[in-house]
Amino acid sequence: MWDYSDKVKDHFFNPKNAGAVAGANAIGEVGSISCGDALRLTLKVNEDTEVIEEAGFQTFGCGSAIASSSVLTEIIKGMTLDDALKVSNQDIAQELDGLPPEKMHCSVMGREALQAAVANYRGEEWKDDHEEGALICKCFAIDAVMIEEMVWANKLRTVEDVTNFTKAGGGCAACHEDIENILERVLKERGESFNPDAAPIETPVIAEKKPLTNLQRIKKIEAVLDSLRPQLMADGGDVELVEVVENTAYVNMTGACNGCQMAAMTIAGIQQRLMEVLGEFIKVVPASQMPKLVTIQEASHA
Amino acid sequence: MPDIYLDNNATTKVDNAVVDVMIPYFTEQFGNPSSIHRFADGVARGIKHARSQVQQLIGAEHDSEIIFTSCGTESDSTAILSAIKAQPNKKEIITTMVEHPAILNLCEHLEKEGYTIHRLPVDKCGRLNLEAYKKLLSDQVAIVSVMWANNETGTIFPVVEMAEMANEAGVMFHTDAVQAVGKIPMMLQDTKIDMLSISGHKLHAPKGIGVLYLRRGTRYRPMLRGGHQERGRRAGTENSASIVGLGKACELAMEFMEYENIQVKAMRDRLEQGIVEQIPHCFITGDLDNRLPNTTDIAFEYIEGESILMLLNKAGIAASSGSACTSGSLEPSHVMRAMQIPYTAAHGTIRFSFSRYNTMSEVDEVLKVMPGIVATLRKLSPYWDGNGPVANPEQAFQPVYA
Q: Does the beta-carbon distance from A40 to B347 stay under 8 Å?
């Protein structure tokens, strides 16, 4: 069975705000096609302040769907609609101390129900903006639709390309056959054939040739981290450059990256990218492993 | 009350008597049965004895028709791959829509390699249409593979009759009988079944041991080549302890065949009748008149299976579900889809599968907690309103699907 956190179990066995809110003026009804779960969220919104005064859920779904619904109602009660809309599915999952990768869509369903309810209150029509496919990469929770879109958009050709662009396949590697199947299908539609030994597609970045000064190096590292930041933030995490000593960059992984079991993978990915852009060997090390800093005075007495 | 195990179609407890006969094969009788010295003698004899115990249970004509493998899946793969290797000109395979993934996923893979796969549909009770089957049989078909009994609903398929039909058309016939062996009597020597798969852990033997029955004279190509074990038909040093254990388990299954079909069936019947009487809006799936004696699969409408299992688990009861969320793949049960069980019921199917270790008092315990569990979850369901489903559930709740 799934490895659910105690919080998930608690919200499942003792759900909060179960049932429909009487006199609700915002109703969102959504479902997830990938597992057949469905959720109705009913809210009572104060018409003057737009504060959510009451929230209730009715869910047809598994343990984590019920727990996600329950925790969502707890999070948004007392929020204004605008603040509630900022609640991401990562927030929902985080509040539950995490969900198994296969079950992340349960938290997505919660966020969508909220968007649908707000749209309903404002007299708008809510449309789902993302399609969800079969889960391919369990290490990074990447589904088939996402991979296929990236293969189309970036003309990817190999599993390595897919890993570089989506992270899918960058963990345990068990999904490489499935990724190859997607590549085979898309490449065929594109009129090409899949060749596992094809060279990785060229990245637009050209490596620097001249040796770098430390200041140039730091600036370049910052630029690379900035370019990777949106991807990390999409997963609820972030990275901060702490210090650069010769060819070692010390970084802090923050947010969801902090303590994430894949943090080491992410660091390896950042290191790879830095070496490609800087054209020199760079070691990326968590700041926690940095030797103790010394002040200039201390150093001069040493 | 100790925990109640009603998931015997998933796996079974190894019988204590089976463990007892196995132990010496880890310690004193550790020799390689292929060796000449006396460390090997007893092992070779133990395996020979086990082979005849398996032969007895399935009514095979010769003990050399029993090939020990590592599991049911290996037996299934060996059978199908052997048939297509031995008959390279035949490019079609007939199977059903409700097979175990061990067959379905292999067939899907072969489809990519150019094979035509005919998947026989089932009706709402899970039954096959033999007329449609007959029309598909031709000299293009390499093998027919149809399970003896379905793992989810327990529905029994007419494999003996289907094997006759295949034989008349000159087509090989394999059956995945992992759920049927030990629960229903069989006499393979009186049938036209060419190959049959057994899995040890479904009948109180350990995991990691299986059998492929291969009728003498059936054209065969091994999947594992190497040493001369199993007369060269399945190379690899014998899993001697598990083979001996499986032999004992087969002997016990033979002894308990009547008990399985009378007492175990009575527990199953009482459970499903009790549930259907006490709980509104639920129904039993599959072919009610033609099922394994130990299996019942009940669809609870408007609620979802994993939620039911979690509450059952909390009450100390183990069962399983055809719901999407309980499978690692998140695919809803292909068996329920094939039977066209409505979506709001298919997700709430719970399978209770018994063994000879269960008792009537366990049945009573399940009957005590089940109504409360269903009521609790229905209270949360958008399809439910107070004491019954909302009027026109499909219209009253129409979520936007992502």
A: no
